[in-house]
């Protein structure tokens, strides 16, 4: 399993089965589908998932300055003239 | 399989463009899965991905990063002896079309596969059209591809 330190960078990405996990300094994103099957691969997937979740909880829990509100709203995109047009 | 260096280059900021979550986690993710399945089935495929910027104005993130109006993925399958390209709008409700590789060259100005013969690039291979679970769909390219792409991108 690739190492991914939640909120440490904007580039790390890993997959657990069909689930993609993308790291970001502002958010950790999960998307896709993951079947936790009743077999050894299922156990392995469940362990990987809980490892990343535990790391996320630990990282957030250790931050002193957690904002009350969603970080998404802070930097709205601006419209600029298309330099390629 | 890509080697370690190629895996790392994937994360270079020079190789990343912003996509809407609806595109990136929806139909684009399914196109990437489709491409992976093709590689597993046919042993080897070549993929070139890039952005396109159309229209008078563009969105800019933090005053530094321009948001492409669409992203494209050209695929060459040597075993099938065919190539084609997906072009997807980078919108909140993303839609994609499948076109010949030459359409990318014509409209975006990039030839993803300079070494391939022209006839191969002028016919779109029958790329699987993944249906997005969330939003977006792939309409068939029945009309003339150039017209279709220009209309699709809102250039005309």
Oligomeric state, counting identical vs distinct chains: heterodimer
Helical percentage of chain A: 25-40%
Distance between the termini of chain A: 43 Å
Largest sheet: spatial strand order of chain A:
1-2-3
Structural class of chain A: alpha+beta
The H/E string of chain A reads EEEHE
Q: How would you sum up the global shape of chain B?
A: globular
What's the pLDDT, averaged over the residues of chain A? 88
Description:
The complex is a heterodimer of chains A (85) and B (156). With 85 residues, chain A is an alpha+beta fold. Chain A has one helix and four strands; from the N terminus they run E-E-E-H-E. Chain A has a three-stranded antiparallel β-sheet with strand order 1-2-3, covered by helices on one side. The mean pLDDT of chain A is 88. By secondary structure, chain B is of the alpha+beta class. Chain B has one domain (4-153): Extracellular Endonuclease, subunit A (Extracellular Endonuclease, Chain A, 3-Layer(aba) Sandwich). Chain B has helices at 4-9, 21-42, 101-108, 118-121, 145-153, and strands spanning 46-52, 57-61, 65-66, 70-77, 82-89, 96-99. In chain B, strands 1-4-5-6 form a four-stranded antiparallel β-sheet, sandwiched between helices. Chain B has a two-stranded antiparallel sheet with strand order 2-3.
